[in-house]
Amino acid sequence: MTRTLTPSPSRRGLRAISLATLTAVVLAGGVAATTAQAAGSTLQAAAAESGRYFGTAIAAGRLNDSVYTTIANREFNMITAENEMKIDATEPNQNQFNYTNGDRIVSWARSNGKQVRGHTLAWHSQQPGWMQNMSGSALRNAMLNHVTQVATHYRGQIHSWDVVNEAFQDGSSGARRDSNLQRTGNDWIEAAFRAARAADPNAKLCYNDYNTDDWSHAKTQAVYNLVRDFKARGVPIDCVGLQSHFNAQSPVPSNYQTTISSFAALGVDVQITELDIEGSGTAQADNYRRVVQACLAVSRCTGISVWGVRDTDSWRASGTPLLFDGSGNKKAAYTSTLNALNGGGTGNPDPGTGCTVTVSRANEWSDRFNVSLAVSGSSTWRVSIQTQGGQTLQNSWNATVSGTSGTLTATPNGSGNNFGITLYKNGNNNNPTATCTVP
Ligand code: G2I
Prior knowledge:
Blueprint: E1 3-4, H1 12-27, H2 43-48, E2 53-58, H3 66-75, E3 78-81, H4 87-90, H5 100-111, E4 115-123, H6 129-132, H7 136-153, E5 160-165, H8 188-199, E6 204-209, H9 218-233, E7 239-242, E8 245-246, H10 256-264, E9 269-277, H11 281-296, E10 301-306, H12 332-341, E11 356-364, E12 368-376, E13 382-386, E14 392-397, E15 400-402, E16 407-411, E17 418-424, E18 433-437
Parallel strand pairs: 2-3, 2-10, 3-4, 4-5, 5-6, 6-7, 7-9, 8-9, 9-10
Antiparallel strand pairs: 1-18, 11-12, 12-17, 13-16, 13-18, 14-17, 15-16
The structure holds ligand G2I.
The site of ligand G2I has 8 residues, from loops.
């Protein structure tokens, strides 16, 4: 396990203050940390401090449960329909569209001042019977018509659409998932994205999947290559959704932040779209904290949604994976999530790693900048520094630093726990992120 503390470059409200402070302190010959942040008392308020949203999936059938709606209204400002915008719900018979329950959710969200994520336009699963039985160009046309009709119905009301959901296989193949949609031709995904863009030009268009959280997994790499290819060829795509359904078999990976920052470096937003983490107590709380901190460390990780309100609302209720218990009480996981959103937790060393590193931006020139790193919690440490974009190492002091781009590794050289690096920007002015472990 690793712990990350970095300044968040997207903390819009503090950016001007931070730059002014930096200027003053740089003149005085010191460095400034940029981790200070006002506290929010709800998830949505705390996330908004850094310009992010915090959302949840909502089920239309629970909108008359006042415990449920009270929590949802108080804590969340981004709403995803858990099932009501899926293909079987919105087009139960071909060319007969039913928006009743989807509209109920959009109406509840908008009347309470919330934004809406659309889920999902094209998926191998939850297809109505008529679509399951189709193939070839008839299916391709039916799919494109579905995308066009539904995106047009909700035009202007959707923050982001999960245009295509779960199109890759699990396991080591990195291949597309076999499905009736895939058998219409490998270009079905880009065709769906183009149709969605035409129907609702202002919605962000996301590719959404699960088991794409671990950077070393073939499925993650396959989605990364799809997005890279789309960006290179001008296929419209704005975001990647990491569903992030975690449990003992699929834990929060140690390289989760690398996955997020790597997708972001392709020029897309990253949204954590369906977060739930099975477990209880401090272990679960710690995992939620790690997810939030990984997102906060990457400026283009723009929001987090959990997949339900209370444990009893979850698609896997027996795993108690959410932030509120069945009675609507805040769990330890809620508190750690809120604290992490409010600025990175306690500042104490992570018991799992034994050390913490703080990243501070220091002197700046047109082509390069200095970064100060301060380790606490241990005198032996290894710090992994993730540079952004094409940044390269020019210089370092008070530590032994290996690598020149991508991931740099720093270890003590006898100068203590405070060290620094100079990075050439090479077109990217974002701060690096860093994690600390005791070897
Ligand atoms: O499976 C978890 C999620 C994985 N990513 C895509 C999401 O769309 C998916 O959500 C789940 C919903 O949480 C479940 O609520 O998707 C399932 C399948 O669409 C949903 O389950 C369905 C049941 O299969 C139906 O039998 C049931 O009628 O929920 C429906 C409404 O309760």
